[in-house]
Automatic annotation (TrEMBL):
InterPro entries from the UniProt entry: Cyt_c_biogenesis_CcmB (IPR003544), Cyt_c_CcmB_bac (IPR026031)
MF annotations from Gene Ontology: heme transmembrane transporter activity
Protein name: Heme exporter protein B
UniProt signal peptide: none
GO CC field: plasma membrane
Membrane topology (UniProt): Multi-pass membrane protein
Alphabetical UniProt keywords: Cell inner membrane, Cell membrane, Cytochrome c-type biogenesis, Membrane, Transmembrane, Transmembrane helix, Transport
Localisation: Cell inner membrane
Organism: Luteibacter rhizovicinus
Keyword Iron-sulfur annotated: no
Length: 228
C-alpha cells in the first residue's frame, strides 16, 4: 500500500482502533458478561421446563445480544472526541464516510463478534435445538452489523451531547424493532421446521442498503454535531 493513500489510511485506522480496543479488554468483556448474566437468569425466573425454555430461547438470545450491543454503542466516538482525533479525521484528505465505515467495522468486531461467538452457548443454556442454531447465527451475523450501522448514525447525531446514553437508547430502540422481528421470524421458522431464508434475505437487503447509506449519513451527522 502506498503511504498516504486511502487504503493505507483505512488500514492504519483499523489497526489503531483494534489496538485501543485490545488495551481496554475489560470493555470488550462487559457486553459478553451482560449477555451471559441475563440469559442465565431466565431459567431461574421461569423454571427448568425444557419445552418452555426452548420456545423462548430464540427471542431471549436475540434481544439480549442486541441490548448488549446497544450498551457498547455509546463509546463508539467518545474517545475520538475526547482526544481530538475525530477532528483530524474530518480534516483528512480521505473520504470521511469511508474512514467512519472502517471505525464501525472495528467496533463491530470488538463489540458484536464476541457476542456472536458466545450466542450458541447461550442458546444451548436455554435448550434451543441444535438444528435451529444455524438460523440464529445467520440472523445475528446480519442483524448485529445492521444495528451497528444504524446506531453509528444516531451516535454521530448525539456526539456533542453529554450523557447521551438515554437519548441514544430512545432513538435506537424503535429502529431495533424491525430487525428483531425479521431475526426472530427466521429463528421461529427454523424451530417450526419451516424455510427461514426469506427473513434472512430481508435482513441481508437491509444490511446492504445500510452499508451504502449509513457511513455517508454518519459523516454528515458528525459534521453537523461538531460544528454546532
Amino acid at each position: 500500500m502506498t503511504p498516504g493513500s486511502t487504503s493505507a489510511a483505512c488500514a492504519a485506522l483499523f489497526r489503531r482502533d483494534l489496538t485501543l480496543a485490545w488495551r481496554r479488554r475489560g470493555d470488550i468483556a462487559m457486553p459478553v458478561l451482560y449477555a451471559v448474566i441475563v440469559t442465565t437468569l431466565f431459567p431461574f425466573a421461569l423454571g427448568p421446563e425444557a419445552a418452555l425454555l426452548a420456545r423462548i430461547s430464540g427471542g431471549v438470545v436475540l434481544v439480549t445480544v442486541l441490548l448488549a450491543i446497544l450498551l457498547a454503542l455509546d463509546s463508539l466516538f467518545r474517545s475520538d472526541i475526547d482526544d481530538g482525533s475525530l477532528e483530524q479525521l474530518m480534516l483528512a484528505p480521505q473520504p470521511l464516510a469511508l474512514l467512519l465505515g472502517v471505525k464501525i467495522l472495528a467496533h463491530w468486531l470488538t463489540a458484536a463478534a464476541p457476542l456472536i461467538v458466545v450466542a450458541p452457548v447461550l442458546a444451548s443454556m436455554l435448550r434451543m435445538p441444535a438444528n435451529v442454531i444455524p438460523a440464529l447465527i445467520a440472523a445475528l451475523v446480519l442483524a448485529t452489523p445492521l444495528l451497528s450501522l444504524l446506531g453509528a448514525v444516531l451516535v454521530a447525531l448525539t456526539a456533542g451531547t453529554r450523557r447521551s446514553g438515554m437519548l441514544l437508547a430512545l432513538m435506537l430502540l424503535p429502529l431495533c424493532v424491525p430487525v428483531v422481528i425479521f431475526a426472530a421470524g427466521a429463528v421461529a421458522a427454523a424451530q417450526e421446521g419451516l424455510p427461514w431464508v426469506a427473513p434472512i434475505a430481508w435482513l441481508g437487503a437491509a444490511l446492504a442498503l445500510a452499508l451504502v447509506l449509513a457511513p455517508m449519513a454518519c459523516a454528515a451527522a458528525l459534521r453537523i454535531a461538531m460544528d454546532a
